[in-house]
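**Protein of interest**
===
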Amino acid sequence: MGLLSSYECNPRELSPLTLAFVGDGVFDLIVREDIVCAANRPVKQLNNLKVERVRCEAQAALMRNIEPMLTEEEADVYRRGRNAHTTHTPKNASSADYHTATGLETLFGYLYLLGRIDRIRELSQG
């Protein structure tokens, strides 16, 4: 069960792209929280800082940094997300970075639905 929902949900039964859909929101929220808690800034600055950290290339770089830290289970989830067939073609990113970022989002969605927020925070710090 996710932290904000009362629905029972087994992330092991969800597709990688469904997990990435959740993980995208989770990652975005963690980045926003980090930025806001670091300093009170005008909203435009907050948004610019957020975009820098959630863009595809930044997510891919984070994933490359944390990959050695993953458990076997986490690495399997990441690979499922990275290898998922997507119909989207990135405009401003390489296909490799896009797939790596999708893998990261899949992992974060999976961990979130398991309630493993501490692990997400640990990994998001790279």
In short: The two ends are 26 Å apart (CA to CA). The chain has a mean pLDDT of 92. The chain has one domain: 14-124. Residues 81 and 103 are 4 Å apart (CA to CA).
